[in-house]
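Progress note, sequence design subtask.
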């Protein structure tokens, strides 16, 4: 096993532990977040029509490859909360997005043949008792007609609970994006626009983004 792969696995397990420790306080942020339910957004036409063999929460590395994807490394995390502001356990969080060249993991994507084959393009994470999730991915980039965004789908017990999108705070394309602008309520619209902030301790320019999702229902089970 290479040092890179070993370090990666250690890194991911460490992040999971840190995430759990950071969000174990019952009801943290619940009162504030429960006021704004995360708005539903279109799934779009590019949900992968063939899932990759690797669907874990590290989109930068496929299986045991030692070649990472190209892009600004981003640590994307958050919590899945129900309508009462309580964490949702065993929620399956799926994300998918374009690579650094603006190509989706979908055969219908305009430049699919030129996509970064080292970018997983799709990932999954099952939440624990605190409702937290974590992905390592790249900062989304624009492509013709769309501002940078990451697609989210939340499932539980085989049932789809919410499909939405996450946007980059401060990106100039946001003001022109017809899907984002279709959300007329200002608070709801702002709830899905998040800051992709530099990590002060990072020596390679990594970013951190936090996107908490508040469901409009309280899932059974």
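Output:
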């Amino acid at each position: 096993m290479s040092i890179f792969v070993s370090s990666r696995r250690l890194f991911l397990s460490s992040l999971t532990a840190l995430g759990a420790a950071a969000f174990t306080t019952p009801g943290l942020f619940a009162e504030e977040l429960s006021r704004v339910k995360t708005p539903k957004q279109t799934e779009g036409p590019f949900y992968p029509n063939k899932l990759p063999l690797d669907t874990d929460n590290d989109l930068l590395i496929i299986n045991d490859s030692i070649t990472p994807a190209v892009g600004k490394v981003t640590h994307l995390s958050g919590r899945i909360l129900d309508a009462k502001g309580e964490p949702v356990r065993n929620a399956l969080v799926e994300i998918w997005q374009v690579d650094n060249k603006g190509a989706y993991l979908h055969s219908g994507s305009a430049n699919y043949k030129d996509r970064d084959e080292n970018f997983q393009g799709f990932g999954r994470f099952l939440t624990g008792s605190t409702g937290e999730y974590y992905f390592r991915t790249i900062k989304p980039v624009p492509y013709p007609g769309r501002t940078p965004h990451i697609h989210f789908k939340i499932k539980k017990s085989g049932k789809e609970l919410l499909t939405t999108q996450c946007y980059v705070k401060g990106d100039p394309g946001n003001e022109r994006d017809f899907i984002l602008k279709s959300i007329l309520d200002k608070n709801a619209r702002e709830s899905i626009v998040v800051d992709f902030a530099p990590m002060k301790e990072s020596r390679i320019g990594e970013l951190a983004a936090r996107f908490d999702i508040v469901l409009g229902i309280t899932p059974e089970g």
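The helical segments are 3-22, 30-33, 178-181, 186-190. Work on this subtask will continue into the next period as scheduled.
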